[in-house]
Every structure is written in structure tokens, then in C-alpha cells.
Sequence to fold (378 residues):
Amino acid sequence: MQGTLRFENVTKRFGGFTAVDGVTLEIPHGATFSLLGPSGCGKTTLLRMAAGFEQPDEGRVLLDGRDITDLPPEKRPLNTVFQNYALFPHLSVRENIAFGLKVAKKPKDEVRRSVDRMLELVDLGAHAAKKPAQLSGGQKQRVGIARALAMQPKVLLLDEPLAALDLKMRQRLLVELDAIHDEVGITFLYVTHDQGEAMSISDHIAVMNKGRIEQIGKPAEIYETPRTSFVAAFIGDTNFLEGRISETLSERFSRADIPGLGAVIIDNDKPVRPGDRIHLSLRPEKLVVSREKPAQAEWDNALPGTIEDVIYFGSHTRYWVRSGEYRLCAEQQHRTFLLDELPPKWGDEVWLRWHANDGFLLDQYREEDEELLTLPEE
Fold:
């Protein structure tokens, strides 16, 4: 069984609104591939065109090289798991899972064997006779997944499948989904607006914005080396620094002047020379906060500042530090018993330290993308 799904120059419009704008994308067979982006970015429309629920205005959808653009949904070897479960309330768990197989007029023995295997796969054997109303949200979603997989699709389409669940249940089901994928080995196309979900479950991620793909890559590549300010801001949180190269220090490092902050050392992630304008993304967890001026390695940066806000999250604390004209966010993990320490507090004079290699130069920067920064202050 293969399962390579490809979109070729696909465009979809709704009246004067372009939901998907000339997207070309290939999801390799056997991968867990996520479409990630804010509401209205086109990710669900792209999934619906794969499923056959929407028709592209331009372009083609192919599965294993075969054009399926004009095939109706029931003729496509793809199944969809929806956010709202879409279970039949009057049918038992077993009957819900068997529904598609019976519609396809599969032999009774085959239906029974397939349903038994799916019940074992999603660990619902003890609940087979229950109706959906007797199940938790997580159990309902597992029934939906089992029903979709029972049809042995080449691609499983998951449309915000965990959005209706609470945090702990989402975290548990992410682990279970990953295990299910390892067991069945088919292609998963996962649509979500939740960066944590996409980072946790995906082999590759396509970050979408305004109908287009901003960047495709492995989760670590997307997070550590964002190509644009949109990606840097949407995947996790970041601090943006703007300035110009003032001096080349070596083949690898340069010094940049950041107006309102001062001189910092940067890694030459991209070719730069004195006078070039740069846009730097600096993740909060890369910044170290200390009361005393830290010892600096050769390519370390250290800037003084004043703590303006502190938020304790249990596993970590976030600090907002005013340094020059910048308000920078730093995140400190609690690796030791915090009550034995005296952590920095509001109003303290502190130092921020980071290695030049911990910042990343962006290819593209847009001021409007800074609005995506979700750094809670209260």
C-alpha cells in the first residue's frame, strides 16, 4: 500500500476570498505530515480538497500519481477523522466502527475480524457494546479513528481531531495517535492550529499563512531555523531584534548594532557584510537571567536590564526584562527545587546572556507578524 498525496498548483476561492493560493505540496507515503497555521490560513480547505469535499478552482490533487481531483469522496481511498467525532449516537462502538465496512458490503467474517482488530488497536474492547453517549471525549475520538482505519485507507486525514478535548486528554491522545501510526504505517495528514500538537506528532510540518505555504521542514528545523518572521512568531514565541551589521569578526560571527539596545554578536547564518540590515529571532529559552554579571565566553552576549514582569508556570518562569528600548522575554526552566533558591523578582536589576549561535537571522521580516507573539503578561 502506497499513499503519496500531492497537490499541484492548487487554488480555491470562495467569492472574492482566496482560501488556498497556488499551493504545490507533496506528502510522502507513511509520513505524519501536519498543516499548521492560524484560522483562515487555508489548511482545512486543503484537507477538504484532498478528501473530495471541495473542488479546486485550479490545479490538481494526485494520489500515488493518479489524478483524483474529480473523484467523489466515496471513491477516494482516503478517510477523514473530524473534530466533532461524527459518530452515530444510536449505534454501539462496535457498530460505529463496522458501519463503513457494511456499507461497502464486506463479508461478515471480514467485518468482524476488522472491527476486532480496530478495537484492540484503540484499546476499546471493553467498551464495544457502549453507545457514544456513554464514552468520554477521548474514547469517542478513538472510535472515530478506528472507524476511519477500518476501511484501510491509503491516507488518513485528521481535521483538528483533538481540538474538543482538554489539555491532558490531548497530550494522552497525541501519544496514542503516534503509536497507532507506527502500528498501521499509513500516511497521516494532520491539520491543526496548535503548534505543540504539530511539533509533537509530525515528521514534517507545512506552516501556512493567507493561503500559501511559508515554510516546510522537520519540527526542529521549523523551530530553530524559521525562514520568516511569521514562522518565528507562530511556532513558539520569540524576540525580534532589528539592526545593521557593523563589523565582521570572523568567517562565522559578526557584530550588529541594534538601535535602542546596543551592540550584539550574531552568527552569520546567512551571508552578511557591514551595512546589511538584519532581522534576528531570539527564542526566550535561549536567554539566561542572572543577578550578577555573567562570565562570558568569546561569542557570548551580556546585556543589563530590569525585570518588569514575572509569571510562574510551575515547570518554568517567564521574565520580561527591559534592556534599553527593548522589552525582552526570557524563560528559565526549574531544574532544581525552586524553594531552595531566591529567583529574580519584579524590579530587580539583572543581566541577560546568550550565545551568538542561539539567535537566527530571518530571510524575511514583516512588522505585522509581531502581532502573532503570544507572550502572556498577566
